[in-house]
Design goal:
Length: 399
C-alpha cells in the first residue's frame, strides 16, 4: 500500500483508475460490492433507504424528495449521479456535497480494504461504498439513493429499501435490462422485498397491472402518483417533466412521513438543480443547460423548449464525438436551432463532422462570452455542461 493520499486531486485520480475501458466492462453482479461492504463492516445495515429508479428523472426526483424530507427536520443523505464538476456532488448531506478534505479522508479509509480484495470493484461500486460509509458514519436519518441502472443487479441494491420510487418506464438500456417495458420494470422491481412501500409515476395500464401482480407475494404496497399533486405549487425549476417529477417526489415524501404545507412550500421554493433544464442569464444572453442524452429525452426537451421559448431560435452546443446519436440530437432540435457547434473536450480539436463547426472548450467559452442577446442551448452531455459551467464560473449549489 502506498503512502496516504493527501490531496483531493490524488483521491480523484485514485477513483478514476477504476474506470474500465468500454471493451473490458465487468460483469453486472452484486458479488464485488457485497465483498467490499463485508470488509467495511456492512455500514449499509444502519441506513434507512429510499431508492429512486426509473428510466428518466431519477436525479431530479431524488433531489426533490431529499429537499422535502429535509424540511421535516431530518438529516438526509442524497446520492445522485453523474456529477457535473466534482465527484463530491454524488454524496450530499442536507444537499451539501461532501467536502474535498472529507472525501480524501474516506478514500484513505477505503483504499487499504480495496487493496486486499481479490476482484477489484468498479468505479461506481467504489463510490457507492464511500457514499454508504459516509452516510452511515454521519448518522443520516434517511438516505435518498439514485439507482445506477435497473435495480436487481444495481450496486445500490446492497442497501435494503424502505421505499422504492419508480419514476417511469421507457425502452432504454435494453441491452442489459430487457427488450420490453415489462422486462425493464421487472429489473427495477428487483429492489422490492417484504413490506416495501412503492411509489410510482407509471401510468400505462398494462405496467400498473403487472406491478401489482409482481408485488403481491412481498405484501408490498404501491401508490400511484397523480401529476396534479403540484397544480397549486410554484416551482422554480422549468420544464413540464420537472413538474411530473415534483408530483412524484411529493407523493413519495408524504408517503414516507407527514409534511405540513409550510414544509412543502419551503422545500419547493429552495430548489436548485444544476444541469437539469437550468436557465442562467449572463449579460444579455439566456443560457439553457439540460442533461438530455438520448433521443427520447431530446424530444422531451424540444417540447419544453417550444413551450417555454416559443418563436425563439437558439445556438446549440453539443459534445463532439462523431457518433450517429450526436447527429440525431442536432436533427431533433433543428426546428428551434439556427446554428450548431460541436465542442471537443480533448486538447486538440477533432475532425469536425460534415457541415458542422468544431470548437475547443476554450473557444466555446470565449464564443459564449462574445455573444449578445442570444439564447444558447447546451445539452447532450453532462461532462460538457459541467465544463462550460466551470468556464463561466457558475457555482454548483443545490440549495
Amino acid at each position: 500500500m502506498t503512502d496516504t493520499l493527501r490531496t483531493f486531486e490524488e483521491a480523484e485520480a485514485y477513483c478514476n483508475s477504476f474506470i474500465s475501458p468500454k471493451k473490458t466492462k465487468k460483469t453486472r453482479t452484486l458479488r464485488r460490492i457485497q465483498r467490499l461492504m463485508d470488509l467495511l463492516g456492512n455500514p449499509q445495515r444502519h441506513l434507512h433507504v429510499i431508492h429512486v429508479t426509473g428510466s428518466y428523472g431519477k436525479s431530479s426526483t431524488a433531489y426533490m424528495i431529499a429537499s422535502l424530507l429535509e424540511q421535516k427536520g431530518l438529516t438526509v443523505g442524497l446520492h445522485i449521479k453523474p456529477h457535473l464538476a466534482h465527484i463530491t456532488e454524488r454524496m450530499c448531506i442536507n444537499r451539501i456535497p461532501i467536502s474535498k478534505n472529507t472525501f480524501v479522508s474516506y478514500i484513505n479509509k477505503i483504499r487499504p480494504i480495496v487493496a486486499i480484495m481479490g476482484e477489484q470493484p468498479t468505479y461506481f461500486e467504489l463510490l457507492v461504498a464511500l457514499m454508504i460509509l459516509y452516510f452511515s458514519e454521519n448518522h443520516v436519518d434517511v438516505a435518498v439513493i439514485e439507482v445506477g441502472r435497473g435495480g436487481r443487479l444495481d450496486t445500490t441494491h446492497i442497501c435494503h429499501s424502505d421505499m422504492v420510487v419508480i419514476t417511469n418506464i421507457f425502452l432504454v438500456h435494453t441491452d442489459i435490462l430487457g427488450t420490453t417495458k415489462k422486462d425493464i420494470l421487472k429489473e427495477k422491481l428487483g429492489l422490492v422485498s417484504r413490506h416495501t412501500k412503492i411509489v410510482t409515476g407509471i401510468y400505462q395500464a398494462p405496467l400498473k397491472t403487472y406491478l401489482q401482480s409482481f408485488i403481491k407475494p412481498f405484501k408490498a404496497t404501491v401508490t400511484f402518483a397523480g401529476p396534479k399533486l403540484t397544480n397549486n405549487i410554484t416551482l422554480p425549476l422549468q420544464g413540464t417533466v420537472q413538474r411530473k417529477n415534483a408530483a412524484l417526489a411529493l407523493c413519495a415524501a408524504t408517503t414516507y412521513t407527514t409534511l405540513t404545507k409550510t414544509n412543502i412550500d419551503r422545500a419547493f421554493q429552495s430548489l436548485k438543480l444544476p444541469g437539469r433544464f437550468e436557465v442562467c442569464h449572463i449579460n444579455t444572453n439566456t443560457i439553457i443547460m439540460d442533461s438530455a442524452h438520448n433521443n427520447e429525452k431530446m424530444r422531451f426537451l424540444l417540447t419544453d423548449l417550444v413551450t417555454y421559448y416559443p418563436d425563439t431560435k437558439m445556438t446549440l452546443f453539443l459534445k463532439q464525438n462523431n457518433t450517429k446519436e450526436t447527429n440525431a440530437f442536432a436533427r431533433i432540435l433543428r426546428p428551434i436551432v439556427d446554428s450548431v457547434f460541436h465542442v471537443s473536450l480533448h486538447t486538440q480539436k477533432e475532425k469536425p463532422m460534415q457541415n458542422t463547426s468544431c470548437l475547443t472548450l476554450e473557444e466555446t467559452i470565449a464564443h459564449i462570452k462574445r455573444c449578445s442577446h442570444t439564447t444558447i442551448l447546451v445539452t447532450g452531455s453532462m461532462e460538457l455542461i459541467g465544463k462550460i459551467r466551470a468556464g463561466l464560473s457558475l457555482p454548483y449549489q443545490l440549495k
